[in-house]
Description:
By secondary structure, the chain is α/β, with parallel strands linked by helices. It has three domains: 45-109, CATH 2.40.50.140; 115-273, Rossmann fold; 287-350, Orthogonal Bundle (Ribonucleotide Reductase Protein R1, domain 1). The protein has eight helices and 13 strands. The strands form three sheets. The chain has a six-stranded mixed sheet with strand order 10-9-8-11-13-12. The longest helix is centred in the C-terminal third of the chain and has 21 residues, at 330-350. Magnesium ion binds next to helix 4. Magnesium ion binds at residues 225-226, 253-254.
Amino acid sequence: MSWLDPDDDLDDEFEDFDESSIRTRPNPKANRPRTKRRPAHEDAEIGRVLGVDRGRYSVMLDEGGSDERVITTTRARELRRTPIVTGDQARVVGDTSGVVGTLARIVGLDPRASLLRRSADDTDQVERVIVANADQMLIVVAAADPEPRPRLVDRYLVAALDAGIRPLLVVTKTDLADPAPFLAHFAGLDLRVFTSERDEMPVDEIGEALIGHSTVFVGHSGVGKSTLVNALVPSAGRATGHVNQVTGRGRHTSSSTVSLRYETPAGTGWVIDTPGVRSFGLGHVDPSHILAAFTELAEIAENCPRGCTHLADAPDCALIEAADRGELGAAELARLDSLQRLLQTFSDKAEGRDAK
Ligand SMILES: Nc1nc2c(ncn2[C@@H]2O[C@H](COP(=O)(O)OP(=O)(O)OP(=O)(O)O)[C@@H](O)[C@H]2O)c(=O)[nH]1
Ligand SMILES: [Mg+2]
């Protein structure tokens, strides 16, 4: 067969190839990429992406049904630029039996209800998409070992509020230090706080808050995220690590993000364990989303000048004026303080200060 034979009709033969197999042909009319055949995939099944490991995605099909199974999949070529993450609802085709050794294909993703991501920053040049469709974020902080960092918590709060995810806070290792001074930072927020001790984690109380939700666990390495996940989901078997006594740092024991089902007779929920991070870039965040999360303050701020930062030095800020006139109660003042701190976090980022 010759490439120069103009009568040769190669279309059928190459029907299943994508652009990488297109070659230059002598007939100028034929010398353009063919429209790629995109099957409709009407037979696709939809399932929850549980985790990703070296290009293979585990997907749960028929969740909660009689044919529930976890299958291994790869992504179709047309999705090669689309991040697929834990929590995505993926459309899969091919061998979806789940039999060992079979590999199905993800051909599309359903629209996401939420997307948690962090921007590139000075410690990590890549923007990361962390989890899709989570509606809660459990921020895990240790009272000591490693030392709690309110500014990292602020960053998580900003990311959660921006993504429309409800934040919760748990303080672990209260056997090592009193968490009260740290918790005082967050007094002005609508933030449910759980505290735990090594042998006395309020597992049932936390578990109750997980039912009916998809909750992503975040926090610095070594704070006890996987320990907590194992207490909640005994079958999880997540590896846990030690905190280096010299540096006070965790060892980044968990290297991947996985979804695990929390199951009790009272109901089920999804827990997503993530690897610890050192920093959390916020370049993608829209500050107006932060203000919107403070409903009563957002109403007052409608009278602010355009582009008002609401920070302490902002001219004619309606919030600051209301505070100066004594129109805000103690709770509102505390919330204004928290709001300003979160907005300051964002403005520090804009000016390239304090990536931690
Ligand atoms: N004293 C004390 N130690 C705890 C508590 N919770 C967890 N730890 C210990 O803290 C260490 C780190 O716990 P991990 O669960 O691996 O922490 P992680 O947040 O998952 O860490 P990465 O996976 O590295 O992000 C382990 O040695 C745990 O046993 C607690 O409440 N009190
Ligand atoms: Mg871990």
